[in-house]
Specification:
The protein is 41% helix and 19% strand. The protein starts with 6 loop residues before the first helix and ends with a strand. It has helices at 7-20, 26-38, 42-47, 55-69, 74-78, 101-114, 130-138, 151-163, 200-203, 208-211, 216-219, 227-235, 255-261, and strands at residues 80-83, 86-89, 120-124, 143-148, 170-174, 188-193, 240-249, 267-274, 280-287. It has 288 residues and is of the alpha/beta class. Helix 1 packs across helix 2, helix 2 (26-38) packs across helix 4 (55-69) and helix 6 packs parallel to helix 7 (130-138). It folds into 2 domains: 7-70, Ubiquitin-associated (UBA) domain (Helicase, Ruva Protein, domain 3); 91-287, Rossmann fold. It contains 13 helices and 9 strands.
């Protein structure tokens, strides 16, 4: 990159560098990086394509393009990701929210609407807090608890709760799954989770952006990828009200294995919902 170029030229040259580095959708990502640098939206980039950039912005963009070319996710560079129409802060301490997890939220909202008087929701492995924060944003009368073993992740979730004005209704607790909860007192109408489920073998084949940058413990429990899922299915009933729901996201090839883990004396399988790619993704169970 030269030090004297327009917005249009900046995007073209940044996209070329990213493309050579193997970054998918290089032009879109180049534009996103420039939006972040100059704090303007995509419409401004289009309508002011010939505007010259300040030399400081050129240097900043060059640095960010270098980071993205090396595999660092765009979301960690810009510290933000949209989820269910809301913007969330993300850092390397948390998993980046995915579009497929919006299916979990949609399913939860639909089931909550069928309940006469849902009390509290619990999210296990809350990370950014995107699941409970979004649900609370959509259902103003609900209360929620977010659990995570990572204190840095809980700090991110707290900031996201404040960003979307749900702090007073979301309690964040450091906990390894349910370990910090009192089985005699903690009762929920619904438990949700996007647990780590990538198998040990599949982890090595993940995109470099995921494998080398996102928190490993949020991605894989090792082995067959089902260790945390087994634990949640065993422990969740003790914290659910009678007739309460348990929803969780699973991996693209895990639905048959997960179905075999369901104790039919404890759970009624409502459905395993498919994502937009037709992949079984969200398991919905009801406590009998």
């Amino acid at each position: 990159m030269s030090n004297d170029f327009s917005i249009a030229r900046a995007i073209v040259e940044a996209a070329q560098i990213l493309r050579q580095a193997g970054v998918p959708e290089a032009r879109r990502e180049a534009a996103s990086l420039l939006e972040h640098v100059i704090k303007r939206d995509r419409t401004f980039l289009i309508t002011h394509a010939e505007t010259l950039l300040a030399s400081s912005d050129v240097r900043h963009l060059r640095d960010l393009v270098e980071r993205r070319s090396a595999g660092e996710p765009l979301q960690y560079i810009t510290s933000r990701q949209e989820f269910y129409g809301l913007e969330f802060e993300v850092t390397p301490d948390v998993l980046i929210p995915r579009p497929e997890t919006e299916l979990l939220v949609e399913t939860a909202l639909g089931l909550l609407d069928k309940m006469a008087n849902p009390s509290r929701l619990c999210d296990v492995g809350t990370g950014t807090g995107c699941i409970p924060v979004t649900i609370l944003h959509e259902r103003p009368m609900l209360q929620a608890v977010g659990l995570d073993i990572s204190l840095p992740a809980l700090r991110v979730a707290a900031r996201n709760a404040a960003r979307h004005n749900v702090t007073e209704r979301l309690t964040l607790i450091a906990s390894d799954c349910f370990s910090a909860l009192d089985t005699q007192r903690a009762r929920f109408s619904m438990i949700v989770s996007n647990p780590p489920y990538v198998t040990e073998d599949a982890f090595a084949d993940l995109q470099r952006e995921v494998r080398d940058h996102e928190p490993r413990m949020a991605l894989t429990p090792g082995g067959d990828g089902l260790r945390i899922i087994r634990r949640l299915m065993e422990d969740a009933p003790r914290f659910l009200e009678a007739g309460g729901y348990f929803l969780m996201e699973i991996g693209f090839d895990q639905h048959e294995a997960v179905m075999s883990l369901i104790d039919r004396q404890v759970w009624e399988l409502l459905d395993i919902y498919k994502d937009l790619q037709g992949i079984p993704r969200t398991v919905a169970l009801r406590k009998i």
